[in-house]
Specification:
The longest helix has 27 residues. The chain folds into two domains: 29 residues; 154 residues, 3-Layer(aba) Sandwich (Glutaredoxin), CATH 3.40.30.10. It has 186 residues and is of the alpha/beta class. It is built from five helices and eight strands; from the N terminus they run αββββαβαβαββα. Strands 2-6-5-4-7-8 form a six-stranded mixed β-sheet, with helices on one face. Strands 1-3 form a two-stranded antiparallel ribbon. Helix 3 links the parallel strand 5 and strand 6. The N and C termini lie far apart (69 Å). It is globular.
Length: 186
């Protein structure tokens, strides 16, 4: 009986060690409020700017940036957030917005999404539209996949706010307060 328990403990211990090893990259990749986001470049097969060209997260410096990482199928999940942000009328010299579209999270064809994004880029020239073709920000930063993730990144590239999926009214208040606080500070 002791040999059976000993063998079972070894199997369970090994399984836990393997599971921890496999899950470690995912847990280490989470964005943490207060820490600088790791640099990620979306180009060629990984994605890039709508209208072509690479995009680097190193560009998230110098201003407060609102970054929305969106599954095209979940675009309406945070319409209330987008409306609240638009109503604030942030100073574009201090606050920038970036919409990163998780193209790998949808069944919709890329060419159809690209056409819509080009129209949106023309309609909203103050928002930078970026395509993520391979869930790069899901893997590198731990952003929510198949959903809607909102980040606020400070002037030095540090995460100031992170919220996933449908934000509550309290989270919207916190989001706007964070943007105002950091965009108005020197």
């Amino acid at each position: 009986m002791n040999q059976y328990r000993s063998g079972t403990r070894m199997i369970i211990g090994s399984a836990i060690a393997i599971l921890a090893y496999c899950l470690a990259p995912a847990t280490m990749a989470q964005v943490v409020v207060g820490e600088v986001v790791p640099t990620v470049v979306l180009d060629e097969k990984k994605g890039g700017l709508v209208g072509d060209g690479p995009w680097s997260s190193a560009s998230l410096k110098g201003k407060v940036h609102i970054l929305m990482y969106v599954d095209p199928d979940k675009v309406k999940v945070n319409a209330h957030v987008e409306d609240a942000l638009a109503a604030e009328g942030f100073d574009r010299d201090k606050v920038a917005s970036v919409a990163v579209i998780n193209m790998a999270a949808t069944w919709k064809p890329n060419f159809a999404i690209d056409m819509l994004l080009k129209k949106k880029q023309e309609k909203y020239p103050n928002t930078l539209y970026v395509r993520d073709l391979q869930r790069v920000l899901v893997d590198a930063w731990g952003l929510v996949d198949d959903g809607y993730h909102v980040l606020v990144v400070g002037r030095s590239g540090e995460v100031l706010f992170s919220g996933a999926n449908a934000l509550s009214e309290n989270q919207v208040v916190q989001l706007i307060s964070t943007i105002n606080k950091h965009s108005n500070s020197q």
